[in-house]
Design brief:
The chain is extended. Helix content is 28%, strand content 18%. The strands form 2 sheets. It has a 5-stranded mixed β-sheet with strand order 1-3-2-8-4, with helices on both faces. It has a 3-stranded antiparallel β-sheet with strand order 5-6-7. It has helices at residues 5-14, 59-65, 79-91, 113-116, 121-124, 177-184, 205-219, 225-229; strands at residues 19-24, 70-75, 96-101, 125-128, 135-136, 142-147, 150-155, 192-199. It is an alpha/beta fold.
Length: 239
């Protein structure tokens, strides 16, 4: 997100066939607790004793802003969720970015406790599944729906809301409007979105490059070194 930011956005833009695992502990842990590009604004750290004054990056926003074709989110405390997400990322053709929420036990311990705590995780996370309505909650009675072109958190059974009113997740939707809404969701207004949020098909860099090389080989009139040396503008000695 910082020193590697240039490589990050252009790797994604080119859609090179690699998997990126982004460990987000919202701090610089290895270098002793400085604030990082994902540290929440106002946080007190070793390098911001009066609180950070910078707006933090949302990795999902940055990924899609760089024309990303795959973005997912998971937590380090849920191995089953990680397995599903990692498998989907590995199967994706192109650049896959997986944000993993985890703690730095020394400098940012329990930084995600409001999301991952056993007593709150069912109500504070929503695991998205392709083709299924957006339902969450300990009693599976909460969901997300669109009203007046705005996403809202609702309770099924209240005010006439039924499961049919909820948004059905479509990670393959070329229109990324809902995907942006999902990566931006934060507590306490919304649960935090988990699972595969975006997964669309697009040109993979290596495939297109190999096709170009193969086409050039077939079309070229230069078949060997002699052809190369006698092609184009050449120098002829008249001495």
């Amino acid at each position: 997100m910082a020193i590697g930011g240039n490589h990050f956005i252009h790797l994604i833009r080119r859609n090179i066939n690699v998997n990126i695992l982004l460990f987000n502990n919202k701090i610089y842990g290895l270098t002793k607790g400085q604030y990082s590009p994902t540290t929440p604004k106002g946080s007190v750290t070793k390098t911001s004793p009066d609180g950070t004054i910078e707006n933090a990056f949302k990795p999902g926003e940055l990924t899609m802003g760089a024309q990303g074709t795959f973005f997912a989110r998971t937590v380090d405390s849920d191995p089953k969720m990680m397995k599903k997400v990692f498998k989907a990322a590995a199967e994706h053709k192109g650049t896959s970015v997986v944000e993993i929420l985890l703690n730095c036990v020394i400098f940012a311990n329990q930084v995600h406790k409001d999301i991952t705590g056993k007593d709150v995780r069912d109500d504070h996370q929503i695991f998205l599944e392709d083709g299924k309505p957006m339902i969450f909650g300990k009693d599976r009675n909460q969901g997300l729906m669109m009203r007046c072109n705005k996403m809202e958190k609702v309770t099924i059974g209240e005010n006439g809301v039924t499961e049919d009113d909820l948004i059905v997740h479509d990670p393959q939707d070329a229109d990324d409007t809902n995907h942006y809404r999902l990566v931006r969701m934060e507590l306490p207004e919304f649960p935090v979105a988990m699972g595969v949020i975006r997964a669309i098909d697009s040109t993979v860099f290596e495939s297109a490059l190999f096709d170009q090389v193969e086409h050039a080989r077939k079309e070229t009139k230069i078949k060997n070194m002699d052809d190369l040396l006698h092609s184009g503008n050449v120098f002829e000695s008249k001495g």
